[in-house]
Write a structure and sequence with these properties.
The complex is a heterodimer of chains A (160) and B (786). By secondary structure, chain A is of the alpha+beta class. Chain A has five helices and five strands, in the order E-E-H-E-E-E-H-H-H-H. In chain A, strand 3 and strand 4 form a beta hairpin. The radius of gyration of chain A is 16 Å and the shape is globular. The model of chain A has no long low-confidence stretch (mean pLDDT 97). Chain B is of the alpha+beta class and 786 residues long. Chain B folds into three domains: 180 residues, Aldehyde Oxidoreductase, domain 4, CATH 3.30.365.10; 198 residues, Aldehyde Oxidoreductase, domain 3; 327 residues, Aldehyde oxidase/xanthine dehydrogenase, molybdopterin binding domain (Aldehyde Oxidoreductase, domain 4, 2-Layer Sandwich). The N terminus of chain B is likely disordered. Chain B is globular and about 90 Å long. In chain B, strands 3-5-1-12-9-10-11 form a seven-stranded mixed β-sheet, with helices on both faces. Classes of the chains: A alpha+beta (160), B alpha+beta (786). At the A-B interface, helix 2, helix 3, helix 4 and helix 5 of A face helix 1 and helix 18 of B. The structure holds FE2/S2 (inorganic) cluster (2 copies).
Chain lengths: 160, 786
C-alpha cells in the first residue's frame, strides 16, 4: 500500500510527513518525527499519556489516525514552553514537584493547558474530573491538582 | 556519628539537607525531553514481539513457525530450543530463606522461553523479530502453538490442597516454601489463656502494578568486544548486570553493560530480570543488529509481575485490660507460576517483620506458605509485605476494640511501645532504635479534628450518608543496606558527579543526593550530577527497593566525602606548605588552622586540573570510588487518619479528609518526601477500594485492561494533610528512615478501618479489599437482612 502524504501544522510549524493509513498520530509523532514527548501508556484511550490537541481540542493521539491531521493543527508537549522559559504550568509543576517519574506528565500538562484555555477558573472538582482521563501511578494527583489550581489563580491574577 | 545534619552552615542553607529543593531533572521531563527506554532507538534496530501462551497450564508439544517466518519483514523467530542450544541459563531465586523444617526454598529455575510446559496465560514461548514492530506483531499472530491444556489452579489456598493441579514435578503441593516463625506451643497457650481473642480471615487482593511506562528493552551486541548492552528500565543496573551475566549468559559481568535512563514508574515490578530482556540480547547477538522490544498495555497486564495476593487468618490474643499477649498470622501467599528474586519473602519473612508494628507484643507466630499457581508471577509491590502486615494488625486492633467495648485509640495507647522502652527488642527479632509512637498518634488524631467527628457524622446522616473514620498506625522495617557505591568524581569541566547504584523510577534521587554532597563538601549544588543507570560506572550497587535509597546512597556519599576530605587535606597541606595535622575542613574549605589561608574543594579541584606540582606520594585528584559496607534496617512509622462517607444506596465510598503524621527520621527534601507519601497513599487507596486482579477458573485474566481494572484517577481521590514528627534513626549516618512505602502502609488500614466504622452500626464487622461499590452495597444489604 502506498504511503499517504500528509500536510499539517505541528506546534505552529507547517509539517509534512508520509505515513501508512493505519498509523496513529502517536506513532508518527514518536517514530517518524522524533517527537518522543508524547507517550504511549495504553494505546487504547484510557491513560492520556499521549494527549495532544487537534485544533485546540484535547485528543488521545493513540486513537487518532495520523492521516486525520491533514489540514489541521496539532499541538504537543514539545510546543508548550517558549524557548528556555517554561510555560506557567510547567513552572508550577517544577516548583511544587508535581511530577515523579514524569511519564504521564506531558499528557497531564497538555490536558491541563487545554482545561485552563477553556475554563480559566476551574474548581478543584472540575480539575479532578477534567484530569480523570490522565492516569498517574506515582503522585496520587494531589500536587498535580494543586499546581493546576495555583497556575489558574496566577494567570487570572496576571490578567487582571 | 557524623554531624552533617547539624552542620547546616548559613551559606549552604538553600540547598542543604532539609530544604525543599526543586528537582534537577524536572526541566527536561516537563518539556517531554525525558529519556525513557522506548525513546531509545539504535541504528539498524529490528523489533521483537513476544508470542505468549493463551493457556494457563498446558503441555507444549510444539511451535510451528513456518508460516510466520515467511511473513513480510520477518527476520527471525527464536524459541526456547534456540536459547537452550545457545547454552543460556535460567533465572533463579537465590533467597536464603528456610522453611519450617530447615529446608530451602524450592528454587524452580525460570527459562526465558517455555520449552516443555506453559504455566500461565502470558508465559512467553517465542520472540518474533521483524523490520518493524507492526510486521513483528502481525507475524506473531501466525505462530502456531501446539498445547495440550491441563487443569489450572489460580488460588494459593486451593493450589496447596491435595489433588490440586501440580505446576512442577519437583515441587510437591505447589509449595515453594512452608515458613514458620515463633513458638507455637507458647502462642497456643497465650491464646488459650487470653480473656479475649479476635480473629479475621483477611484477603490481601492481587494488584496489577501498572507503572505508566510499559516495560521496554533494547539489546545490542558488539562482536569485536563480545559485549552485550541492554537499555532497560529497572531499579538498579548493577544487580541486573550480575543476574544476566552470571545466571543466564555465563559471561563476565563487564561484558553485560546495562544502561537505564528515565524510568516511568516501577514500584518493585521492574526490579528483576524478565524473559524479554534475555530474548532481545540473544537475538541481537544472533542477528548482528540491535533488537528493541516494547510491551503494549495488554501485554503488561499479563507479563509484568503482579503484587500482593495473600490469603491470611490473623488472630490477636488480649488480656482483660486489653493488653496484647500474642499475635498469630497463618495462611498463603500466591507467588504465581515462577519465583522472582524476592517473591517468597512477602507472605513470610516480611509479614513477620512488619506485623509487630508499634506495639508491645510478647509473642508472635507467622506460619505461611508461598504457593505456585497458574498466574502471572508475583513480586514486590510498594511495601512488599509491609503494608499487608500493618493492615492485618490494625484491622485486628480495631475489631478487638469494637468487640471488647474499648475505644480504639485507647486500646492502641495501652499497647504502644513508649519512647522510654526504646531501644526495644521486638518478638519478631527486630530491634527498634528510635521512635515516639504515642506522640505521633496523638498529633494525627488532633490534626484530624477528632472531636468534631460527631457533628460531621450527624450532618452526614441528615444527607442519608454513613460517615466513618479510621486510624492506621504503621511501622515498617526497611530493607537493610548492603554494599552501596559512593562515587564522587571531579570532572574536567568543573562538574562533580555522584556515582551510586540505587536507581530512581520517579523518586528523584539526583536532588536529595546532591543536597547531601553539597552540604558535606560545599561544592556548588548546580554543578552536581548523578550517574545511577550505567553499570560500567559502578563497582557496587544494591539498587532501589525496600525504602532504603537515601540510607544507602546518602551514607555512601557521606563516607566517600570523608575520603575526599582526607585526600584534600594532604594536598592542601602541600599547597600551604604545612603539616596535614594543621589543616582543618570547615564550611566547604580546607584551612590552615588559626589562619585565614583557605582553599575550597572546588578551588582545589581546579588547581589539580590545572596541574599542581605534587610529590609522588600525594593523590593526583580528589575523586573517590568507595563502597559503603552496610546499615541495618530503619523503622519509619506514623499514623494516618481517614474519614469517609458511604452512600448506602449505591455503596460508593468517598474519602472526605485524610491526615497523617509520619516519622521518616531526617528528611533531606520535604518537597519530595511529601510526594512519596501521597503516591503511596493512593496506591493503597486503589488496593483498598478499587483494584483487583481476577482470574477465571481456567486461569484467564478477567481484568486485562484499564476498562476492567480500576486504577485510581484524579476524580477518585481526596487531597491530603501531611506532617512529620522526626525522631532521627541512630543506625545510619544521616538519621534517615526511608519513606517510599509508608503511604501504602498507613492508607490500607486507615481507609478500611474507616469504612468498617461507617458500616458498623448496621452490623458489618469486616469487609475485604477492594471495597468496591458493589461489595459495599452487598454488605449493607446482607447486614440489613440479618
Ligand atoms: S496511550 Fe493514548 S490514552 Fe493511553
Ligand atoms: S509521575 Fe509517574 S505516572 Fe505520573
Amino acid at each position: 500500500m502506498a504511503k499517504m502524504h500528509i500536510t499539517t501544522t505541528i506546534n505552529g510549524e507547517p509539517t509534512e510527513f508520509l505515513c501508512e493509513p493505519y498509523e496513529t498520530m502517536l506513532d508518527v509523532l514518536r517514530d517518524n518525527l522524533g517527537m518522543t514527548g508524547s507517550k504511549e501508556g495504553c494505546g487504547s484511550g484510557d491513560c492520556g499519556a499521549c494527549s495532544v490537541t487537534l485544533d485546540d481540542r484535547l485528543v488521545c493521539s493513540c486513537l487518532m489516525l495520523a492521516a486525520e491531521a491533514e489540514g489541521h493543527e496539532i499541538r504537543t508537549i514539545e510546543g508548550m514552553s517558549e524557548g528556555e522559559a517554561l510555560h506557567p504550568l510547567q513552572q508550577k509543576f517544577l516548583e511544587t514537584a508535581a511530577l515523579q517519574c514524569g511519564i504521564c506528565t506531558p499528557g497531564v500538562l497538555v490536558a491541563a493547558d487545554a482545561l485552563l484555555k477553556k475554563n480559566p477558573n476551574p474548581s478543584e472538582t472540575e480539575v479532578r474530573y477534567w484530569l480523570a482521563g490522565n492516569l498517574c501511578r506515582c503522585t496520587g494527583y494531589d500536587k498535580i491538582v494543586r499546581a493546576v489550581l495555583e497556575t489558574a489563580a496566577d494567570l487570572r491574577g496576571a490578567a487582571e | 556519628m557524623d554531624s552533617v545534619v547539624e552542620d547546616n552552615q548559613l551559606g549552604m542553607m538553600k540547598y542543604g539537607i532539609g530544604q525543599p529543593v526543586t528537582r534537577s531533572e524536572d526541566p527536561k521531563l516537563l518539556r517531554g525531553e525525558g529519556n525513557y527506554t522506548d525513546d531509545v532507538n539504535l541504528d539498524g534496530q529490528a523489533y521483537g514481539v513476544m508470542v505468549r501462551s493463551p493457556y494457563a497450564h498446558g503441555t507444549l508439544n510444539g511451535i510451528d513457525t513456518a508460516e510466520a517466518s515467511t511473513a513480510p519483514g520477518v527476520i527471525a523467530i527464536l524459541t526456547g530450543a534456540d536459547l537452550d542450544a545457545a547454552g543460556l541459563g535460567t533465572m533463579k531465586c537465590g533467597l536464603p530463606l528456610k522453611g519450617r523444617d530447615g529446608s530451602p526454598i524450592n528454587y524452580v529455575p525460570r527459562p526465558a522461553l517455555a520449552t516443555d510446559k506453559v504455566r500461565y496465560v502470558g508465559d512467553p514461548v517465542a520472540i518474533v523479530i521483524a523490520e518493524t514492530a507492526t510486521q513483528a506483531r502481525d507475524a506473531a499472530e501466525l505462530v502456531e502453538l501446539d498445547i495440550d491444556p491441563l487443569p489450572a489452579v489460580t488460588d494459593a489456598r486451593a493450589a496447596a490442597e491435595a489433588g490440586a493441579p501440580q505446576l512442577y514435578d519437583s515441587v510437591s503441593g505447589n509449595t515453594a516454601i512452608d515458613f514458620q516463625y515463633g513458638d507455637t506451643a507458647k502462642v497456643d497457650t497465650a491464646f488459650k489463656e487470653a480473656s479475649h481473642q479476635t480473629r479475621l480471615n483477611i484477603r490481601n487482593n492481587r494488584i496489577v502494578v501498572s507503572a505508566m511506562e510499559p516495560r521496554s528493552a533494547v539489546g545490542s551486541f558488539d562482536a569485536a568486544s563480545e559485549g552485550y548492552t541492554l537499555n532497560v528500565g529497572c531499579q538498579g543496573v548493577f544487580g541486573m548486570m550480575n543476574t544476566l551475566a552470571k545466571q543466564v549468559f555465563n559471561i563476565e559481568p563487564e561484558k553485560m553493560h546495562v544502561v537505564t535512563g528515565n524510568v516511568g514508574g516501577s514500584f518493585g515490578m521492574k526490579a528483576g530480570a524478565y524473559p524479554e530482556y534475555i530474548c532481545v540480547l540473544h537475538a541481537a547477538k544472533v542477528l548482528g543488529r540491535p533488537v528493541k522490544w516494547t510491551d503494549d498495555r495488554s501485554g503488561s497486564f499479563l507479563s509484568d509481575c503482579h503484587g500482593r495476593d495473600h490469603d491470611m487468618t490473623a488472630e490477636l490474643a488480649l488480656d482483660a485490660d486489653g493488653k496484647f499477649t500474642a499475635l498469630r498470622i497463618t495462611g498463603y501467599g500466591n507467588v504465581g507460576a515462577f519465583l522472582t528474586a524476592v517473591s517468597p519473602m512477602m507472605p513470610t519473612m516480611n509479614t513477620l517483620k512488619n506485623a509487630n508494628s508499634v506495639y508491645r507484643l510478647p509473642l508472635i507466630e507467622v506460619a505461611s506458605k508461598a504457593v505456585f499457581t497458574n498466574t502471572t508471577p508475583v513480586t514486590a509491590y510498594r511495601g512488599a509485605g509491609r503494608p499487608e502486615a500493618n493492615y492485618y494488625m490494625e484491622r485486628l486492633i480495631e475489631t478487638a476494640a469494637r468487640e471488647m467495648g474499648i475505644d480504639a485509640i485507647e486500646l492502641r495507647r495501652r499497647n504502644q511501645i513508649l519512647p522510654s522502652e526504646i531501644p526495644y527488642a521486638a518478638a519478631n527479632g527486630m530491634n527498634y532504635d528510635s521512635g515516639d509512637f504515642p506522640t505521633i498518634m496523638q498529633k494525627a488524631v488532633e490534626a484530624s479534628d477528632w472531636d468534631g467527628f460527631a457533628a460531621r457524622k450527624a450532618e452526614s446522616e441528615k444527607r442519608g450518608k454513613l460517615r466513618g473514620r479510621g486510624v492506621g498506625c504503621y511501622l515498617e522495617v526497611t530493607a537493610p543496606v548492603q554494599e552501596e557505591m559512593g562515587g564522587i568524581r571531579f570532572e574536567e569541566n568543573g562538574d562533580v558527579t555522584i556515582i551510586t547504584g540505587t536507581l530512581d523510577y520517579g523518586q528523584g534521587h539526583w536532588t536529595p543526593f546532591a543536597q547531601v554532597l553539597h552540604q558535606k563538601l560545599g561544592v556548588p549544588f548546580e554543578r552536581i550530577r548523578l550517574i545511577q543507570g550505567d553499570s560500567a560506572e559502578l563497582i557496587a550497587g544494591g539498587g532501589t527497593g525496600g525504602s532504603k535509597s537515601i540510607m544507602a546512597s546518602g551514607a555512601a556519599i557521606l563516607e566517600a566525602s570523608d575520603i575526599v576530605i582526607d585526600k584534600g587535606k594532604k594536598i592542601a597541606a602541600h599547597v600551604f606548605e604545612t603539616a596535614v595535622e594543621d589543616i582543618v575542613f570547615e564550611g566547604g574549605a580546607f584551612q590552615v588552622a588559626g589562619t585565614d589561608r583557605t582553599v575550597t574543594v572546588t578551588e582545589l579541584a581546579e588547581q589539580l586540573r590545572g596541574g599542581l606540582d605534587l610529590p609522588e606520594d600525594l593523590p593526583r585528584d580528589l575523586s573517590v570510588k568507595h563502597i559503603f559496607d552496610a546499615a541495618p534496617s530503619a523503622f519509619p512509622n506514623g499514623c494516618h487518619v481517614c474519614e469517609l462517607e458511604v452512600d448506602p444506596d449505591t455503596g460508593v465510598v468517598e474519602i472526605d479528609r485524610y491526615n497523617m503524621v509520619n516519622d521518616f527520621g531526617t528528611v533531606v527534601n520535604p518537597l519530595l518526601v511529601e510526594g512519596q507519601a501521597h503516591g503511596g497513599i493512593v496506591q493503597g487507596l486503589g488496593q483498598a477500594l478499587m483494584e483487583n486482579a481476577v482470574y477465571d477458573s481456567e486461569g484467564q485474566l478477567q481484568t486485562g485492561s484499564y476498562m476492567d481494572y480500576a486504577v485510581p484517577r484524579a476524580s477518585d481521590v481526596p487531597s491530603f494533610t501531611f506532617a512529620t514528627h522526626a525522631v532521627p534513626a541512630t543506625t545510619n549516618p544521616l538519621g534517615a528512615k526511608g519513606c517510599g512505602e509508608a503511604g501504602c502502609a498507613g492508607s490500607l488500614p486507615s481507609i478500611m478501618n474507616a469504612l468498617v466504622d461507617a458500616l458498623a452500626p448496621l452490623g458489618v464487622k469486616h469487609i475485604d479489599m477492594p471495597a468496591t461499590p458493589e461489595k459495599v452495597w452487598a454488605a449493607i444489604q446482607s447486614a440489613k437482612a440479618a
